[in-house]
Amino acid sequence: MRGHAVLVDQPAGAGGDDTAPTPTALFVASLASCVAFYAGRFLDRHHLDRTGLRVTAEFAMATGRPARVGSVLLRLTAPGLPVERRAALHAVVSKCTVHNSLHQPPQVDIDFV
């Protein structure tokens, strides 16, 4: 991607070598990092301290078929954010590009070359 290599693997118990995140974990990390980017941009735009800005993610797989992520919990830490600005920040991060793509999924085509 743009000249960057991204490594993925599976845990040893699932046939991999556990040398890198799973594709599913990378998917969740993409959402968390997008939220973090939008949060940082919000804090900068409003001249708020972004020291300590952090987004952590937990996810659970759905129990039914097809195999998929069933839920994601993102925890946003922004020590420099006044309480009265939380709703505004929430509105912004809830519209990050990855989040928007989950709510309005793209068409995905698979072609052989």
UniProtKB/TrEMBL annotation:
The keyword Zinc does not apply. Keywords: Membrane, Transmembrane, Transmembrane helix. The chain crosses the membrane at residues 20-40. Pfam families: OsmC. InterPro entries: KH_dom-like_a/b (IPR015946), OsmC/Ohr_fam (IPR003718), OsmC/Ohrsf (IPR036102). PROSITE patterns: PROKAR_LIPOPROTEIN. PANTHER family: OSMC-LIKE PROTEIN (PTHR39624:SF2), PROTEIN INVOLVED IN RIMO-MEDIATED BETA-METHYLTHIOLATION OF RIBOSOMAL PROTEIN S12 YCAO (PTHR39624). This is OsmC family protein.
